[in-house]
Amino acid sequence: MDVDLVVPMKHPRDGKSRLRGAVDGARHPALVLALAADTLAAVTSAGHVRRVLLVAADPDSVRELAELGVEIVAEPVNRKNAKPGEQSLNAAFRHGEALLRADDPHAVIGALQADLPALRAGDLAAALAEAAGRRAFVADRQGTGTTLLLAAPGQPLDPRFGLGSARAHAASGAVALGQELPSLRSDVDTPEDLEHVRALGVGKHTAAQLGETPAAPG
Ligand SMILES: Nc1nc2c(ncn2[C@@H]2O[C@H](COP(=O)(O)OP(=O)(O)OP(=O)(O)O)[C@@H](O)[C@H]2O)c(=O)[nH]1
Ligand SMILES: C=C(OP(=O)(O)O)C(=O)O
């Protein structure tokens, strides 16, 4: 079963504030773009991924990522589909979902974070296979956040990203995917997370920002 993925991004200058200081301040936006580029390169090379829709706070600021085979749209400005008090991140996911669903009401929609620079296509494929059409999620390596949420075919994504989202997604009926999937669990929020993915092996864009030799793709 093929999946259409929504990936949200702030302006790279504004995003990943907890990661600030990991590289020289002037290079922070380039590092954020590199994390996303490695994530998206793995995603677009994975089997069973039909479309990848990047919902950007500022499409021009992430335009170079289109080369990787993703579609880029702007997040809604008036946030009319946001629920009161809710993170704008979830509104961005729902905006992408609505666009994909308009093209195919029966689509399987997924939500993926853009900060998985060690992602291996095989880990994503394994998660899709294990989900087998169920509403499902992958928790981050700390077990509190979510890196991937999958809707059941034709069913709402109902994203509940934010603090403690793993628990919120489980409470919403999503199955926690149980495999190891280290590259899919290793999101980068802090300098410590960056050290962790360096040890796992990052893709070529992040490696270039860190002055390293990239890991072999897999
Ligand atoms: N389009 C869009 N993307 C968002 C929004 N909020 C967060 N994101 C993106 O969603 C992903 C996950 O968000 P976080 O990991 O919390 O990232 P962040 O907000 O950049 O990080 P911190 O500033 O450290 O909290 C990142 O790729 C963000 O750029 C939003 O309001 N709109
Ligand atoms: C918003 C989330 O991401 P992060 O852990 O990257 O802040 C989340 O996991 O729900």
Automatic annotation (TrEMBL):
Instruction: Output one GO BP term.
Output: F420-0 metabolic process
Could you tell me which SUPFAM superfamilies the record lists for this protein? Nucleotide-diphospho-sugar transferases
**Domain of life, source organism:** Bacteria
Q: Name one Pfam family in it.
A: CofC
Q: Name one GO molecular function term.
A: phospholactate guanylyltransferase activity
Instruction: Indicate which residues the UniProt annotation says bind phosphoenolpyruvate.
Output: 146, 162, 165
- Reply yes or no: does the keyword GTP-binding apply: yes
Q: Which reactions appear under catalytic activity for this entry?
A: phosphoenolpyruvate + GTP + H(+) = enolpyruvoyl-2-diphospho-5'-guanosine + diphosphate
Under Enzyme Commission nomenclature, its number is 2.7.7.105
Gene3D superfamilies registered for this protein in UniProt: Spore Coat Polysaccharide Biosynthesis Protein SpsA, Chain A
Q: Which InterPro entries match?
A: CofC, Nucleotide-diphossugar_trans
Which pathway is recorded for this entry? Cofactor biosynthesis; coenzyme F420 biosynthesis
Keyword entries, A-Z: GTP-binding, Nucleotide-binding, Nucleotidyltransferase, Transferase
- Which family would the database say this protein is a member of? Belongs to the CofC family.
Q: Which NCBIfam families match?
A: F420_cofC
Function statement: Guanylyltransferase that catalyzes the activation of phosphoenolpyruvate (PEP) as enolpyruvoyl-2-diphospho-5'-guanosine, via the condensation of PEP with GTP. It is involved in the biosynthesis of coenzyme F420, a hydride carrier cofactor.
Name under which the protein is recorded:
Phosphoenolpyruvate guanylyltransferase
- Please name the source species: Amycolatopsis iheyensis
